[in-house]
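Morning - manganese (II) ion inputs below, output right after.
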Amino acid sequence: MDLFEYQGKQYFARYGIPVSDGDVADTVEDAVAVANRIGYPVVIKAQVQVGGRGKAGGVKLAANEDEARTHATSILGLDIKGHIVHRLWVEHASDIKREYYASFTLDRAEKAHLCMLSAKGGVDIEQVVEEDPAAIARLYVNPIDGVDRQELERLVDEAGIDAEAKTGVVEMLEKLYRCYIDGDADLVEINPLILTPDGRVHALDAKVTLDDDAAFRHPEWSDFAYDQDGDARETLARSKGLNYVGLDGSVGIIANGAGLAMSTLDVVNQVGGSAANFLDCGGGANADVMADALEVINSDPRVRVILINIFGGIVRCDDVANGVLLAIERVGLSTPIVIRLDGTNAPLAREILTPHLSDRMILEPTMISAAKRAAEIANKGSK
Ligand code: GDP
Ligand code: MN
């Protein structure tokens, strides 16, 4: 689960990482009220899960109530790389002397945690990575040993952090590591990590990805999940216990087994289609699961055709065929369906489906022919 900045800051604060005082606001008036309460100057920040908000006009300083109102108005509703801003974070503005970058993440290839630190933090960090990679110092941390203070001090020197910030940054990295480990995160990133004119080291931004598999250890995460305004299709799918990932294409896909679902995505792409989702309906593939799956896919206006690709191993194709028919009846589909069924009882399944076939319900013998047919329908744009 990716956290919004304001959630990331709540999470940081639990681990003693200094962040600015602030609050969320979903309307202009709320934003002004928060600004008045915490005191000017404030910074008003778009809460969207995408980087580069600053450059896109999603982060603005306000010196007084008028400016707060103007900026809140311009940022709410803003489209930042396809993410519409519905929520603001308003915090007391900090004075900045230097902007650094700090993060911990897992480097799977090295089988170690990786700490990255740079004295060249801020909105141009991507450019630094490209043009001056040596400006980013790296430290691998063995998960069994944890971070060592002397190694952190060396890293801070190597990164070119100002002498006056050294102790503050080392302490920050120790806290950030604790927060990353004890908090079960896959990524914690602070950019910018600032040095203030009065010598404090402070987190101005927060990017946190939590390890969903550790959710059972963290009942406190449910607040974060509740506030996620992620993909509406994914929220619906989650509520139905489906293994679903939303994508941008126009071919809705239902397959059984993650491997088959992924291969189906590949084949659809290969024949010139584009997948609207990944959906593994698992071993069940009965009428209930099928109806849930169709309902989720049907909620996506981009979907022009649904491709059902089932291999009957343990599951019997005739059960699936009956499930599909019942599910269609229940959901009231407007989208054409292409079906490919193979494996246990496939001939019986075809017999069950045959009386229902039309140009909106098509049976294809192979995965490739089904994918081609689906892509053809999707690309023609007929709904
Ligand atoms: P991002 O662009 O999405 O990474 O958003 P950030 O939260 O990192 O903000 C972008 C930039 O806005 C920072 O690099 C700072 O230069 C600036 N900024 C953010 N908060 C403050 C603040 O409190 N005071 C000042 N002076 N600048 C800020
Ligand atoms: Mn940032």
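Note: The mean pLDDT is 93.

O.
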